[in-house]
Amino acid sequence: MTYCVGLSVDQGLIFMSDSRTNAGVDNISVVSKMKVWEVPGERFLCLLSAGNLATTQATISLLDERGLAPAERNPSILTQPSMFQTAKLVGETVKEVISYTTPAGQSADAMFSGSFILGGQIKGGKPRIFLIYPQGNFIEAGADNPFFQIGEHKYGRPIIIRTYDPKMSLEECAKLLLVSFDSTIRSNLSVGLPIDMQFYEADSLKAGYKRRFDKNDPYYQTISEGWSDALKSAFDALPPFER
Amino acid sequence: MTYCVGLSVDQGLIFMSDSRTNAGVDNISVVSKMKVWEVPGERFLCLLSAGNLATTQATISLLDERGLAPAERNPSILTQPSMFQTAKLVGETVKEVISYTTPAGQSADAMFSGSFILGGQIKGGKPRIFLIYPQGNFIEAGADNPFFQIGEHKYGRPIIIRTYDPKMSLEECAKLLLVSFDSTIRSNLSVGLPIDMQFYEADSLKAGYKRRFDKNDPYYQTISEGWSDALKSAFDALPPFER
Fold first, then answer.
1. Which of B154, B165, B223 has the highest number of chain A CBs within 10 A, making it the mutation to test binding with A?
2. Which GO terms describe its biological process (chains A, B) (predicted)?
3. What per-residue confidence (pLDDT) applies to A106?
């Protein structure tokens, strides 16, 4: 499993992903699920991925044109005219990867599926976030649905639904998403530290502040421990039940 | 889907279940998923059920011996010598129901599966809670795992994990479980009001306080609305993230 969130606020976009990958509980590794492309002043793109690691890595490699010698690379993902076209390219690429894996080759019980969150901005457009399905189609975040989650989304969803406000700063969003990730990590072994975080300030057209939280990160520890106490206080503040 | 919780504290046991049943989002009904048997002074049993409604209803009917005329009924579930034997009887009954449905009769895409939480106390024993699987086997709650959830358990789990304390009163447990249910109901359409709640005071050997919360219940409304504000305050109280 995996847990990734892409969230949109007035100030910009924030992306967060865990980094645990597993082939069974006895075979786990750390792999970042966040990929950033940028042409400063022109475009910024961030892609979060969940699902079969072979599928998501192949998709990213194709988008990156890693088949070419480094000098010859001119990734097509950096030449699309709009975020919509960029999402379409990601969708077509994942569909292509899945289609050439599924029918031939070794069969396996594992699914070849992969899902993506793509966010960013291209000059002349607005910051946008898309959720891209393994079938290649996609949906866009809007005012009624300002964030997307992929992977193990259930444990960490209630806190986002109840606390989100479009006027939040990116720093407040970082705190909110860390609480959501901590709730998920405590409940599902297949979601694990370190956590990657990427800010994007609207209209900056370049990668913003970036941070990786590992288990020794003092702020992560503060949130993880502090939230239990804060929840208990909140719970105590609710009126008692009377028969 | 469904959401049911059976929770054990020093003071006794508490059971809570939603009452939405559905065959698709366009076909929903209200059905209680809680069944209580008691012989005051001798035993108290509460059974919560999730899964295929035909399977769970047939299981309960068999346990209740509804095939007999009312005057001839002497439900075997009320004659077991221990909670362990009672859980075994429930497990054998659900396995039997599933086995006579599955191979013959009409085939369907729907699963015939059903899961149960059984809690209660029999004179001479302690209050106990079991989780019974559709395969007929079962596990018991203990100090490390003092509660069981069946159905849509993920949304409402983090708050129980972080807030539970064996010294809580049954009233505090009611508040906790209502928060957990409200988080689930807001996130999953297939879990719905009204909510049934049953208390059991340890060693009382009779059914305790009971209540049904519907959408007009003033306390449920207070919790549902108050928890969002309480969570926001708790969130604001955490130290801010700084770059």
1. B154
2. proteolysis involved in protein catabolic process
3. 53
